[in-house]
Amino acid sequence: MATSSSLFRSKKLSLFLNLSFLLLLALYLKTNLFPSNLNSTLFHLSSNIRPPTTTISHHRLLSDITTNGCTDLQKYTDNKYKCFYVKTHFSCRPKGYIDYLQIFYCNFGQFPILGHFVLLLWLLVLFYLLGNTAANYFCSSLESLSKILKLSPTIAGVTLLSLGNGAPDVFASIVSFTRSGNGDLGLNSVLGGAFFVSSIVVGIISIVITSHRISVDKCSFIRDALFFLFSLFSLLLIVAIGKINLWGAICFTSIYLVYVCVVSAMHFFCGDKDNGVGHVGEAGIPLLGYIDDEKPVLKSGLEEQEQIANFLNLNPEICYYVAKIVHVLELPLYLPRRLTIPVVSEESWSKPYAVLSVTLAPLLLAALANTQRENVSLRSSLVTYFTAGLIGMVFGNLACVTTKKSSPPKRCLFPWLAGGFLMSVTWTYIIAEELVSLLVSLGHIIGINPSVLGLTVLAWGNSLGDLIANIAMAINGGADGAQIAISGCYAGPMFNVLMGLGLSLVFSSFSEYPSSFEIPGDPSLYETLGFLMACVLWALVILPKKNMRLDKSLGYGLLTIYFCFLFLRLARAFGLLNLYGSSFEV
């Protein structure tokens, strides 16, 4: 019954998000295929509408458009002027694929509550897609690759599996630096996620298992905490200097390679099993703990029908049609990824899907390549698509000839797994790009800096899986589970800081080479790094004094540090507190 209940909850979440996606898609198509006559009205504002004295004139509006950025959007109170502003100002155009500001002000200007609801619903769908893609496609490809490459558990834990768990943070950071031009968002999202995991998650774990009197391994904890502190101190120096060149960015990223070598050396020479299990234990945990593996229609239909029938007390005939309807409703979010990401696992194998995925994957890569380039000619775009189509047809024919309908391929698995890894990375990048674009637009709509949304909404959303999985592991896994959970709470954020921000700095400084890349000048970064380092230092001081035993003093201290920081940051963002001599503007 527990399995049926879990399946039913998963189905309800999937159905809700798929129906939400269909609703949002219908609204988007309606507003674009049947636009209102608002555009013609806007261009005659000065002649047809006499602005009140409290409204900024049309001439002033055009002047602001030519001299200021999108930050002046909040100066206007009339939605028609705001719509005209976002339509004519290049800086207000998103770096993603959807113009959220235009949709909000031009289509929902008279109904702002409905506009907020639509954007928040789409935010929820994007978070689901990001976590679900990482859990069901990205992580499974990495786990299979680690087996094919015969990596030791320790090496796999601190490299491929850490990448799988930190994929959303890493790609969101890279997108914010390279595509959105808003490095503040990337810095704050990674640091916010690291702060949340190392304070809230560790704090709750310490409080809920106090009565169990569980201790963690001292050497492993001190190693991870000291490396994490060194990483944060290095980032603090980079922010203080204000710029970094290519070689400096490479050195910052290579700190994680040193950490991998130290972990491997300790595991090899000391033979401490905790060094390995502390990272491998997370391998089987989905990024979002409440998202079950997606099950293909062809393989698990009968089993799911039986479980749903038992749970809902339906007769088999009615349940058959219910299951068919459920499968159809789940397709909008499932099918596009399934048709472009090769999957060769035993439980999810389907030859039609496999052939179609390797055929369509090059076309998706071509579409992404065309959108990443500026001023692409039609001829160049068509050549890219034509080349991708030819490559896809070759791959599709090879897959059709070399695979069986009954089982996945047993030989030459590496190309399949590498292709699955590449396409899951592609989808994660696309979703992260759209998520960052939406958060930047929400920052403009609400009137606060998008970096605050990165520090809170994006960080919390990407860390939700760590919260659920690590707490469940600590409660149900005994001493080993608590060790795994605590190790993951420090090794995971360290990977995100060093690889997520490190790779972002490498790409950004490479684009500026031989000049240096200018670090976003956000004075609140010092505050974030200071509180985060205080959080790690608190754990380093309290745990040894308590003989490495997790208790309430550690937990309540970490929660206090986090909520004090959060209060200060949000109070300044909403204008209730001014520490830097000027209001915190967008």
Automatic annotation (TrEMBL):
GO terms for MF: antiporter activity; monoatomic cation transmembrane transporter activity
Task: Return the InterPro entries for the record.
Answer: CaCA_antiporter (IPR051359), NaCa_Exmemb (IPR004837), NCX_ion-bd_dom_sf (IPR044880)
Its name, as the record gives it, is Sodium/calcium exchanger membrane region domain-containing protein
Family to which this protein belongs: Belongs to the Ca(2+):cation antiporter (CaCA) (TC 2.A.19) family. Cation/calcium exchanger (CCX) subfamily.
**Limits of the Sodium/calcium exchanger membrane region domain:** 120-263, 417-570
Instruction: Tell whether Transmembrane is among the UniProt keywords.
Output: yes
Q: How does it sit in the membrane?
A: Multi-pass membrane protein
User: What superkingdom heads the lineage?
Assistant: Eukaryota
Signal peptide annotation: none
Protein's cellular compartments: Membrane
Protein keywords: Antiport, Ion transport, Membrane, Potassium, Potassium transport, Sodium, Sodium transport, Transmembrane, Transmembrane helix, Transport
One of the GO BP terms on file: potassium ion transport
